[in-house]
């Protein structure tokens, strides 16, 4: 068998082998650059909005519709029960009252009492009876609108709000309810108009301020939303929810410094949401505040709601940029108890990366082998093992893992290039060309692969 001339070292270096192991080589850190930190893995968690739906109809027997004279004695008995919010007593009095013809006002009171007791069908029936007796009874239309909103029956709610508006009822509550319905129906621009009208009438209403904020965000109208939140923070500087909104809007506008500072204020004001701690950590890494990021990661890991997948990218970032002490500090705070098999695979894989970065190849191998037991199809782990065995000149094992890694679409190109490098290490240049051609088919934009193929082809041709 003729010995094949080995490729000079300079030529071997042309072939870029991307692997789990060697991708962790220390990289100079530039605070002003993007730094590869993906902020898409964790989303800001806002306080859930509390929507207060009111029909603006206080429980009272003094109605715009009048009680029948025969109902006055009942009204006198009802008044103290309603004042004390003793709805069961009031309902018993109403049900005990027998009459062939009830007034619209009494039907309205009956509907309100049933609504207060969450007896929705009975309330709906009473309000409809009130409108049947007196079609122009705006209060019953409003009550029905509120009831239908609570039941998310928005088409019916809109119908009765329009009836109330037609009857001259034009106040903040009605405009706010219409805006809320439009927001729920994915019509944020219409909602913006309704909330703005409601705020003209009740400028200090937190409900309308909250609604306008959510409508502006839903419409992706971020600059007006930012102006609104700045105005509200002047009045309520300790409102945690407003600082979270400020952070969210700033991120949408690409103002990461402002997003981070706003999120930090919210955290100091008592926000303990694990996802927000993680986002703070990622933003700190993005800005180069490594120690502060480690602090936030450690805090987040104390929550049982945090999966390892959520912190893995940050730990990998620390290791990638050479912050191995910090990466180890964070990963030591991770417990594998209750961890899914997928997360365990990722956990031991990251530990392997850190060990490899610290030039502890035996430890790295142990972690990779442990990881692959939990994630046998993980392309990155397979590639890491292939790279480990290649550097140890254990070519048979390396080839086995390269072949397995090539099945994974995520790392197929890296695996093929690595396999080519393995062939070069064994002076199997024709095989290397085959693997590089396969890689080029997968990534035709890779001009470096095409150049290396030509170099290898010339070499093979020269060797005959």
From TrEMBL:
InterPro entries per the UniProt record, alphabetical: TPR-like_helical_dom_sf, TPR_rpt
PROSITE patterns: TPR
Keyword Signal set for record: yes
Keywords of this entry: Membrane, Repeat, Signal, TPR repeat, Transmembrane, Transmembrane helix
Signal peptide coordinates: 1-25
Record's bilayer topology term: Single-pass membrane protein
A GO CC term assigned to this protein in UniProt: membrane
Swiss-Prot/TrEMBL TPR repeat ranges: 104-137, 138-171, 345-378
First-listed, main subcellular location of the protein, grouped into a coarse class: membrane
Pfam family name, one: TPR_16
Compartments it resides in: Membrane
Entry's Gene Ontology molecular function annotations: mitochondrion targeting sequence binding; protein transmembrane transporter activity
Record-level GO BP terms: protein import into mitochondrial matrix
Family: Belongs to the Tom70 family.
Protein name, per record: Tetratricopeptide repeat protein
Protein source organism: Shewanella hanedai (Alteromonas hanedai)
Lineage start: Bacteria, Pseudomonadati, Pseudomonadota, Gammaproteobacteria, Alteromonadales
